[in-house]
């Protein structure tokens, strides 16, 4: 036994001596090169190869990392023995994830692959312009060398596709906002997101069924139109301009679109964007299959500060309550231009993602610059109108469960006669219905009364306005007569002068 310990000690001694000798005799460069060579040799003989997929790639978030995480979460939940569970704020879904430095086996087309989740502490002295997460996270994919082609050609694409599908199907839709005013989060994102839970659908949306059908078909054509857009050489995007009075369902329509297509929403707060390049960066950070929304576009940009039509400047500073001066907007830091906005929607940069929908809303279409309305910019202009009779029937069905046949014929006829004249918004009508939803008869009666009152008020207003117009015309007409007389006289005088001039010319 004593002999064994003696020989072990001497062996260790020899090893330590060799190491010291190696360090003393060989310079660090040579040592490094030797290790590299040994590594190469061992790799040469190994039948495996490895791929690292880090969470942050330089300064950008690596989409592949997120996709792998989501993709693996489904198989992890079944096979994994130690899992990390996460539930995003306000989210209803729990996401399973691999624990730190844990492995999972996956199979694709008969090939077995091994994923390892690696988490290490970031070195504190690492310099970065923006705060980085404390942990460095990444996946390592281990595959047989002979399967490399299959994995690189299709497995990773398959993962991306699957993850997108899962995101659409299982996850809550996300609503992104740029309310941070241009600053980035620790993962380099200018957008903040919350789960999008708006319950509006095309069934709940009260509007003319023919118009609704047209929009639905347009959306379906768009979503299935990859081949068409490719064939025609167009960017795979579409623009909708929703306009109409407040409370007619513009925002509800956007939510219905997102829910119908399963897209995320990027709600772009234009007053938080300072420059065109910031706008472009925001666009670059949006994902495919999304709706990019600019609500109340006439209020987001101050249209009074137009300089010229080709490169229109808007003073965004003024719109922030005068905190930022940005007086003339000409190239200042706090300005975005119309051309910047148009580039955002249909310039070269707008194609940096695909399958995206742009939606602008406004209460005042007449205030918008014609450049925004030109065909090809906003493909479809959708007028969200006051409550019409078909829309009213949808609201009655949704809020009270009343079909056309359930109502008294006379009441129905009265409703039909008065609803257009009343010019009430679907928002107002639905408020009335909610209030009385326990008593259907009462709800219908009160609605009819309210519509009648509104119709009368509108008619009275129209009469008053007509009278005012007439009075104005009457007051202006004698004056206009005078003006005409004066003009005629001055014309005559002018003509006399001209004639004089002419004469003088002739004289010359
Ligand atoms: N066409 C509609 N169908 C069903 N509900 C509607 C419709 N229009 C309005 N509503 C109801 O009124 C509320 C307000 O509507 P919404 O916010 O969509 O109007 P808006 O047109 O976006 O108004 P604003 O111009 O003020 O932004 C919604 O929550 C919804 O319940
Ligand atoms: Mg709205």
Automatic annotation (TrEMBL):
Pfam families: AAA (PF00004), AAA_assoc (PF14363), AAA_lid_At3g28540 (PF25568). It catalyses: ATP + H2O = ADP + phosphate + H(+). InterPro entries: AAA+_ATPase (IPR003593), AAA_N_dom (IPR025753), At3g28540-like_C (IPR058017), ATPase_AAA_core (IPR003959), Mitochondrial_chaperone_BCS1 (IPR050747), P-loop_NTPase (IPR027417). SMART domains: AAA. GO terms for biological process: response to stress. Residues 491-508 have a biased composition (Basic and acidic residues). One of its GO terms (molecular function) is ATP hydrolysis activity. The keyword Magnesium applies. Residues 236-388 form the AAA+ ATPase domain. Residues 458-508 are annotated as: Disordered. Keywords: Hydrolase, Magnesium. It comes from the Eukaryota. Gene3D superfamilies: 6.10.280.40, P-loop containing nucleotide triphosphate hydrolases (3.40.50.300). Its cofactor is Mg(2+). PANTHER family: BCS1 AAA-TYPE ATPASE. Belongs to the AAA ATPase family. BCS1 subfamily. This is AAA+ ATPase domain-containing protein. It comes from Carpinus fangiana.
